[in-house]
Structure formats: C-alpha cells, structure tokens
Amino acid sequence: MSTLARKKGVGAVIWDYLTTVDHKKIAHLYLIAGGLFFIMGGIEALLIRIQLAKPNNDFLVGGLYNQVLTMHGTTMIFLAAMPLVFAMMNAVVPIQIGARDVAFPFLNALGFWLFFFGGLFLNCSWFLGGAPDAGWTSYASLSLESKATHGIDFYVLGLQISGFGTIMGGINFLVTIINMRAPGMTYMRMPMFVWATFVTSALILFAFPPLTVGFIFMMMDRLFGGNFFNPAAGGNTIIWEHLFWIFGHPEVYILVLPAFGIFSEIFATFSKKRLFGYSSMVFATVLIGFLGFMVWAHHMFTTGMGPVANAIFAVATMAIAVPTGIKIFNWLFTMWGGNIRFTTPMHYAVAFIPSFVMGGVTGVMNAAAAADYQYHDSYFVVAHFHYVIVGGVVFALLAGSHYWWPKMFGKMLNETLGKITFWLFFIGFHLTFFIQHFLGLMGMPRRVFTYLPNQGWETGNLISTIGAFFMAAATVILLINIVITTVKGEKAEADAWGDGRTLEWAVSSPPPVYNFAQTPLVRGLDAYWIEKMEGKKELTPAEPLGDIHMPNSSFLPFIISFGLFVAAFGFTYHNDHSWGLPVGIIGLLITFGSMFLRSVIDDHGFHIHKEEVLELEKKGAKA
Amino acid sequence: MQVEEKLTAETFPSSPERATLEGKNKFIGFWLFLGGETVLFASLFATYLALKDKTAGGPSADELFQMPLVFVATMLLLTSSLTSVYAIYHMKNFDFKKMMLWFGITVLLGAGFLGLEIYEFNEYVHEGHVFTKSAFASAFYTLVGTHGSHVAFGLSWILTLMIRNAKRGLNLYNAPKFYVASLYWHFIDVVWVFIFTVVYLMGMVG
C-alpha cells in the first residue's frame, strides 16, 4: 500500500475520513464533531446567561428559553463531553498499550457515525418546529405534556441512536484493553489513562442499557400509544426517573474517570516523577466505578422514597468522597518534590485540584438528604455540577487536547496562546459559577427564565454572565491557536514534550498507520521512561520485523447509521403523515441490509509488507 | 494460528472460536455485550414487576395466560438451546455436516417458538389485551416482544451464517461466528426461563 504516503486531494481526504477504521483518524472525527457540538452548547449557555443578566429580561423568554436550556445540557453531556472523551481514548489508548488498533476497528467507526447521526438528528429539531424543552433529564411528567412540537421525540430517538454508538465504543475499549496489550503490559503496568478508560468502558456497558430502555418506553408512550408513564392507565412517571438516574449517575463517572486519567498522565509527565501511589490510584478508580452504581437515587431525595432509602443513598454517596480523596492526595504527592514544568496542560491540572475539590465538597453537602431539601432545584445544584463537570471534565479535555495535540496532528499548539486560553477560562469559570452557590442559597431556582428585581440576585447574576463571556473569549483564542498551529506550527518530535513516560511518545507524531513497526516489549510501568533511563532511544521490540495485518476501510458504518437517521424521521412523523411509516421502514431496511452485507462479505483485511514498513519507517525518521 | 490456514480434522484446534486473535476478540466482546443485554432485560423485568397489576380495566394476567400454549413454547425453546449445544460440539470436532444439521434443527425449533408467540399475541389482541390498553399491557408486550425480536434476530443470524457458509465448510474465520451466534441463542433461552417464571408462572399463580 504505497498509497499510504502519497499526497491526496480534498475529495480523497473526505472519502478517507468517511470510510476510515483507523483509531487515530476516528479520534480526529470525534474531536472535530465533539468540538463543534461543544461550541454549539457554549453558544446556548451564552444565550441563557444573557437572558439572566438582569431581572425581567426579555431577550429569550418562555418556551424558547426552555428549549435552549434543555439543548445546552443535552448537547454538553451527550454530544460534546462524551465524544471528546472518546476522542482522547481513541487517540492514545491503543498506542499506550502497544497495540496496532482497537479490537474492532469496524465497530469503532460505526460507533462514531451512530453518535454523529444521533446528534445531527437531535439538532434537526431546531428547524422542525422546536427543540426538546423538558430539561436534559426530560422527566416523564414534563416530557409527556410537551405535545406542541416533536422536540422530545427528537431527543429520545437522537440520543437512542447515539447511545448505541456509545455502548459499542465501551465494549470495543474493554476488549482492546483485555486482549490487545503488548507483551509485558500487565494490568498493573497500564498507564492510568488506560485504567480509567477500562473502568469507564465497563460503566458505559452497564449504565447505557437502562437509558436505552427508558428511551424505548418514552418512544412507546409518545409515538405508539404506550402507557408506561401515563398514570391514567396505571403508568408511573417515577420509573423514568429511576431508569434515567441509574444511567445518569454512572454517566458523571463515565465522564470524570477519563478526566482523572488524563490528569494522572499530565501530573507525572510534568513533575518528571512516577505517579505517586499507582496501585492505590487503580484501586480508587475501580472503587469509584463500583460505588457509582450505588448512588443514583441521591438525585431523587425529594421524590418521596422515604427516610430509609434516602439515608442509604446519602451514606453511599458520601462514601465516594473517600476514593476521590485518595486520588487528590496522590496527585499532590506526585508533584511534591518533583521537577515541575508549568506547561499549558500542567496549568489545567494544577487548577483542576482546587476547582474539583470545591465541586466535591458541595457534592457531599448535597448528599446530606435532609439538607438537600433546601438545595434541591436551586442554583446551588447548578453551581455544584458545573464545578465537577467543567472544573473536572472540561479542564481535563482542554488539558488533554493541548497535551496530545502534537501526537494527534504532528504540531505543537502555541504555548503562549494556550496559557492565555487557560487564564481566561479559569477566571471565567470561577466568575460564572462561584457566585451561583450563593444565588442558590438565596433561593434562586434553576431552569426559570427570569426573576424579579430587589431580591438581592441582580449583582450575582450579572457577575455570572460576565464570567461566561470570559470562557467564550478563551474558546475563541483556542480556535485561533488551532488555526495558527495548523497553518504554520512547528513540527512535533516523537517525544513532543521531552518528558514522555508512556508508549505513545515513543512513536512518531503523528504515528504511522500501524502505530508500531514492531510490537514493543513492556518492561514496567512508564515503559518508555524505563528505556530512556537506560539511554535507549527506541523501545525494545517483542517481535521481528514482518508483514503487518491491517483492517480494510469501509463505508458501511456510515450507511448503517444513516439508515437509523432516516428511520428516526419516519417514526417521529408516522402519526402526522402517511409517509412516516414507509420512511421508517425504509430506514430500518437500509440499516439491516448493510448489516447483512457486512455479515456475508468476507473481510480479511490486508497486509502492509515488511519492505513497505521499512520504507515508511525510513521516511518517518527523516521527517 | 492464522485465519487463512486450511485445516483438517487433525489440525483443527479444540477451541476454534478462540484460536485466532479475531476469534478471541469476538469471544470476549460478545460475552461483554451479553452483560449489557442482561442489564437491558433486567430493566424491562423491573418495569414489568412494577406495572403488572396496573390493568386499567383491561384483562389481567391470570385471565389471559394459558399454560398449555406457553408450556409447549417453552419446551421448543429449551430444546433448541440443547440442539445448538450439539451443533457446537460437532463444530469443535470439525464435523461440518452434523453441525449444519443440528443448527438446522435449532432454527426449526426456534421458528416454532416464534410462530406460537405470534399466535399467542394475536389471541390476546382479540381478547382486548392490546398494547395501548394499560400500563400492564405496554410492559408485557415490550418485555416479551423484546425477547421475541431477539429470537427473530437470532434466527435470521444463524440462517444467514448457514447459507453463507454452506459450500465452504469450517475454518477459523467462520468458527467464531457460529460460536457467538450459539452464545446469543443460549442467552435468549436464559431470558425466556425468567420470562416463563416471572411473567407466566407468577401471572397465573401469584
């Protein structure tokens, strides 16, 4: 395949990305799509903050405010944070374990396209009557009453489609980490980010099916005359709350564990020290994953479950502070006595610790069931979850993007602009959300589109809005940085930061399509660091140079996902229009037909021959 | 071992489904997938238990369910699980013809089960037990129907594999495919055991 190295036209590049099954290119796709949705969610946040900047504002009122608020939450969680986490995982996890690709490259591509078409479908609602407007949790008592538009149907079917993609991604990474580790890469030698990915994938596997079931019920009730949530026919809306939160609480750990993993890598790299307390970090990660499933009902303290259930869930929730505390101290001790370099990723990492701890403390406050009756549905809760999600996950994604940018795209992001981005974002973040704790304690309810003057909320809300614009400015500078870097950034070395410890820094930036010409032999934790300390420039190979087996590209993942996209339109409108049902069936036929083709057409992949590998390696070394 | 290798009864590995990396990946990946499916059905069962007495004036479980029909359906499906074990036994012994024969019997038994289920649903609809009638009806049809659609998918999957590979015999490329299809079939069977107990037995006695 000498075409691998050839320069390609725009059309060929697009076709390449539409059909790729290479984890590194899929990482690019996740990063671009997730980044676009992040910007959309950010614009929605700005609209919310503009509306709330002063009392009795009429910038964005009533139903439209509900839609923007719902789409902000939904977009940020499902369409921005999740895919950006997957971007990081795809970009580095296979390389960090010394593998040439994930276990199921085809499924990997399918997962991306399902997410993409699901997100696209959800956002089509803006142009087709109106977006969903029942909050990102879409409680059945609200969403079944939202009958004026098809917004909720777009929410249910769009997220259902993208959820299938997420489950596939989860299974794929589990199998990859179980089966594809290089020789010597034992479980307790895996980088922390790999461990985080492993536990997160397990959470995805067990947390998404309840959500799938919840969506099935909601779809049945809204589109096919079901009665799961209809009290008049014996239904019960609380079932939705349980199913949603059995998914919803593990979901926050699905997001934050990879964030912990990213920061663990960054702390060790830029402190020039082995991660402190590696085995306790692994233990804490697994324990958080386990406890994450035991606490969902703390979102429902005021639902009326009774004091026993509330007490059990309160105690279980507070218990999570213990493994999280272990992690915080391990990061601090990693820096202790280290040779610290304050690069952009390290700025985020250091800022993450106090920011996330503040979110954790308010989390324990919310966990106290009796006190939660006061905090419930107030801005205190809004402040809490933005502290953990932005202070934890978004900081980590920004840090990870800067940290692995050279590995993903072969060029270093500008450090000065990176630090400006950080400071603007850091200041803006605290400006926006710190004051919201107090607004909440003063009684300001969440999700309400305006408030009256003279309640003492004016200044707080104005400060919060100003902070949001700081974060917007930070994002703009990040985009400028990306453009400048792409146009004329300096080419990155293999070990781009000079202090890389894990395997991804041993291969060129960006890595060759097969990652490793020879599968490496791993001799301990921080495998690349060990080799460097012995004065070696390259990894110890575990196999002789030979032909490399690669998977074939395929357009089928795109078509399978597109079929579901079409079907979702059909079923959304099947009660209003006679074309609905046939379109729905055609869509499903496209999907199942493509799956059938995938099943009956043999796909053995191809080999890159030894001579071509040698040639590519020589070229890579020269560049 | 490589996927492309030509094999004889002597060189065929004892666990052909795990002899290649692709096979191992499929094997573990599919077990994990079944873990997710378990949670999916657990959610459906929990909902059914919460709503099973909410009939909203429609027919209730003990008025609807008929033991003879459900018993025959159960026997068909349980037997089909056994015959798929025979098929995999012959696959491991590199006896392609006998494997196809037993998979064929499995498909016939599964189709019999599906036919009875369609007949059963049709009867219920005539008795006024329609999907939109009550929360009980919605939960019943969604739980049992999700299982039924799994049966239908499993049948078409095994049939597709049989037809696709009819002329080329066993190799390390298709052995994992047959194996995971049989795993799926067992899983469907296990779920039915729970449906038989929780829905039908508890519906008639409880």
Automatic annotation (TrEMBL), chain A:
Its cofactor is heme; Cu(2+). Signal peptide: none annotated. GO terms for molecular function: cytochrome-c oxidase activity; heme binding; metal ion binding; oxidoreductase activity. Pathway: Energy metabolism; oxidative phosphorylation. It is an enzyme of class 7 (translocase). Pfam families: COX1 (PF00115). The chain crosses the membrane at residues 29-50, 70-93, 105-128, 154-180, 192-218, 238-263, 275-296, 308-333, 345-367, 379-399, 420-442, 462-484, 555-573, 579-601. Residues 9-523 form the Cytochrome oxidase subunit I profile domain. It is found in: Cell membrane. InterPro entries: Cyt_c_oxase-like_su1_dom, Cyt_c_oxase-like_su1_sf, Cyt_C_Oxase_1, Cyt_c_Oxase_su1_BS, Cyt_c_oxidase_su1_bac. One of its GO terms (biological process) is respiratory electron transport chain. It is a multi-pass membrane protein. It catalyses: 4 Fe(II)-[cytochrome c] + O2 + 8 H(+)(in) = 4 Fe(III)-[cytochrome c] + 2 H2O + 4 H(+)(out). One of its GO terms (cellular component) is plasma membrane. Its EC number is 7.1.1.9. It comes from the Bacteria. Keywords: Cell membrane, Copper, Electron transport, Heme, Iron, Membrane, Metal-binding, Oxidoreductase, Respiratory chain, Translocase, Transmembrane, Transmembrane helix, Transport. Cytochrome c oxidase is the component of the respiratory chain that catalyzes the reduction of oxygen to water. Subunits 1-3 form the functional core of the enzyme complex. Co I is the catalytic subunit of the enzyme. Electrons originating in cytochrome c are transferred via the copper A center of subunit 2 and heme a of subunit 1 to the bimetallic center formed by heme a3 and copper B. This cytochrome c oxidase shows proton pump activity across the membrane in addition to the electron transfer. Cytochrome c oxidase is the component of the respiratory chain that catalyzes the reduction of oxygen to water. Subunits 1-3 form the functional core of the enzyme complex. CO I is the catalytic subunit of the enzyme. Electrons originating in cytochrome c are transferred via the copper A center of subunit 2 and heme A of subunit 1 to the bimetallic center formed by heme A3 and copper B. Belongs to the heme-copper respiratory oxidase family. This is Cytochrome c oxidase subunit 1. It comes from Saccharococcus caldoxylosilyticus.
TrEMBL record, chain B:
Keywords: Cell membrane, Membrane, Oxidoreductase, Transmembrane, Transmembrane helix. Its EC number is 1.9.3.1. GO terms for molecular function: cytochrome-c oxidase activity; oxidoreductase activity. SUPFAM superfamilies: Cytochrome c oxidase subunit III-like. GO terms for cellular component: plasma membrane. One of its GO terms (biological process) is aerobic electron transport chain. It comes from the Bacteria. Residues 28-204 form the Heme-copper oxidase subunit III family profile domain. It holds the Pfam family COX3. The chain crosses the membrane at residues 28-49, 69-89, 101-119, 139-163, 183-203. It is found in: Cell membrane. InterPro entries: Cyt_c/ubiquinol_Oxase_su3, Cyt_c_oxidase-like_su3, Cyt_c_oxidase_su3-like_sf, Cyt_c_oxidase_su3_a-hlx, Ubiquinol_oxase_su3_dom. The keyword Metal-binding does not apply. It is a multi-pass membrane protein. Belongs to the cytochrome c oxidase subunit 3 family. This is Cytochrome c oxidase polypeptide III. It comes from Saccharococcus caldoxylosilyticus. The lineage of its organism: Bacteria, Bacillati, Bacillota, Bacilli, Bacillales.
